[in-house]
Every structure is written in C-alpha cells, then in structure tokens.
Amino acid sequence: MNQQRLVLWNPYASQADANTDLKAEIQNTPDTRIHELHEQDDLKAFLDNQTDHPLLVIAGGDGTIHRTLNQVNASNENFDFAVLPLGTGNDLAHATFGKISPWDCWQAITENNLISRKLDVGKVRVDREELYFFNSIGGGISAEFSKNVTKGEKKTLGSLTYLKGSLEVITNPKRFHIKYRLDDGEWNEREIANFFASSSSICGGGLEIAPGAKNNDGMLHFITYRAMNSIDRVLLMTDYLAGRYEENEAVKSEVCNRLELNSEEMLKVSIDGEIKSGRHFQIELFPQALELQIPDLAG
Questions:
Q1: What residues pair up with 256 in beta bridges, in sequence order?
Q2: pLDDT band at 220; cut points 50, 70, 90
Q3: pLDDT class for 1, splitting at 50, 70, 90?
Q4: What is residue 166's predicted lDDT score, i.e. its pLDDT?
Q5: Is the C or the N end of the chain the one with fewer CB within 10 Å?
Q6: What CATH number was assigned to the domain covering residues 123-288?
Q7: Can you point out the beta strands (E) in the chain?
Q8: Which of 298, 299, 254, 263 lies closest to 282 in space, CA to CA?
Q9: Residue 254 — left, alpha, or beta (φ > 0 → left; ψ -120 to 50 → alpha)?
Q10: Rounded-to-integer distance, Cα 76 and Cα 78, Å
C-alpha cells in the first residue's frame, strides 16, 4: 500500500498565487489530500485526528514550517515530514537540499525519489514562553524590520524583501545592551545592533550569517554585530560584499550548544519569522532531532 500524502498548503505564502497550476496538480494526484492553512485554524486538533501515518508535506515558507512543526511537534511519530518550498526566503529548504523549483520538488515527492535527512532543532524560551525553531533567531534591528514587513511586500518584492532588510540592519544606528553566556561559561556584556542564533549558515532569503555552518552539525552559531557609527557600517557592507564578512571587527561569531541572553530593554526577536519580545532568552540546540524527507538530487 502506498503511503498517503497530506499537503498543508499555505495560500498566503508568497509563491502560492504563482503556483495555482501546481496546486491543481496536487489535488489530482492519487493517494494525496490537500488541506489549506488559515490563520484561525486549530491545526493541532486537525493533525491529531490523522490516523493513517501520512507523509506531511508542508507547502509554504520558513514561517509555515515553523508554525506547523510547533503545532504537531517535530518528533511526532505519527508523521513523516517533507517540505514544498513556496515562501519568500525558503532558508531551511535551500540549506538542506538546495534551490529547486516547487514543481521539481513535488515530482520527487510523488515519485518517492526521497532520502532521509536528520536536522538540528532549536528551542527558545522567551521570558516564560517556549518555541521550537528550525533555522534561526534574529534579534534587534532585523526583528524590528521583520515586524514591519507586510505580506503584500513579500509577495511583491520576493527575496528582495530580505535584501532591503539586510541593508536596514547595516544602516540603522539603533543599539541594544545585552549580557550573554555560552553553555556554562562566564557572562559577557556587549552593545549590539543585532544578533543571530542559528542552526544554519543562512537566513533572510539567503543572507549568509555563519559561513560553513550546516544545519546538522550539532552547533548553535551565535553571531553579534556591535553597535557601529556610519563609517563602520559602510565598512561592514563593503566587507560583506567582498566576502570578508567574518574578518570585520564589528562581527563576532561563536558556537555553543546553549545560550542565555538578557537585555536591559524589551528586545524584539524573529523566530523563523515569528515576532516575539522579551528581556530574557534561553536557547538550546538538539542535534539531529528532526527527520525530514528531501529530494534525492543524486537519484
């Protein structure tokens, strides 16, 4: 008996409107059901009622993946998981199996041309709320920019939305005073413009924040950008474009398994695109805790 497929289609994803033909193809594919996601859905209750151990295909971007896996629990043994990239950035998909079209990805799924890949999963506690993340957390200016980006801008600008955001991070003079420690180490103080805590090398539609990092290497990558004057910000932009990003004095890159971070003021963070605010953050990485079915590009 063929494994059933349950496609969770996010109609608000930036590439959803451009892939209506693909949606029709999915609806006509044997052994496949499609469920449209809406913001007011009780997704957890819907998924709890599934009894046939389907391949759960998350059709959307990083935010859709984040929402779904937080609802269903990434370690839920009732499902196998796959991703159909329809978002603006698609960072998890690109970091895991490269940039392929939604059509090619769906073909691999229907032909069962898939291999299993185990990925690291992060958990963050923001004050008293806990969430899982599957790519990165951005705090400071980048999160404030993300909060103000509309769905219309994402659909209109696509990946250029994140280019606009990266320029905002570099040019905005705002600063935040933080204290942090890695694992069980000593506390450090730093005045920053922005930080990233990431299980991957990229975020924001391909912005490389931790060159060489892999989303299954078992390491949490913590990158801070110290507060800068206008000249320093121009130098950082120049170094990034020239591939000297990690050599810039404003950038500090560290690795750990656990991170504690405290801010003197309320600090906005973007957790795989979901905006939260807090003063106290506890972040932990669980190595290879998510098993994902991905296209076998060598097959």
A1: 220
A2: very high
A3: low
A4: 52
A5: N
A6: 2.60.200.40
A7: 5-9, 32-36, 55-60, 80-85, 114-126, 129-133, 136-140, 176-182, 188-198, 202-203, 207-208, 220-226, 251-256, 258-271, 274-295
A8: 263
A9: beta
A10: 6
The model's pTM: 0.86
Distance between first and last Cα of the chain: 23
The predicted-structure confidence for 142-160, as pLDDT tens digits, reads as follows 776 554 444 444 444 444 4
Architecture of domain 5-120+290-295: 3-Layer(aba) Sandwich (3.40)
Q: What is the rounded CA–CA span in Å between residue 72 and residue 67? A: 9
Exposure pattern of 102-140 as b/e (b: 16+ CB <10 Å)? beebbebbeeeebeeeebbbbebebeeeebbbbbbbbbb
pLDDT digits (tens, 9 = 90+) for 71-82: 887 667 778 999
Secondary element (H or E) of residue 70: helix 62-72
Distance CA(2)–CA(174), nearest Å, equals: 55
φ/ψ of 217, rounded to 5, equals -90, 0
- Average pLDDT for 261-271: 94
For the chain, domain boundaries: 5-120+290-295, 123-288
Alpha carbon distance 108, 245 (integer Å):
36
d(CA 99, CA 124): 28
Nearest-angstrom CA–CA distance, 228 and 236: 9
Residue 77 has a CB neighbour count (10 Å cut-off) of 8
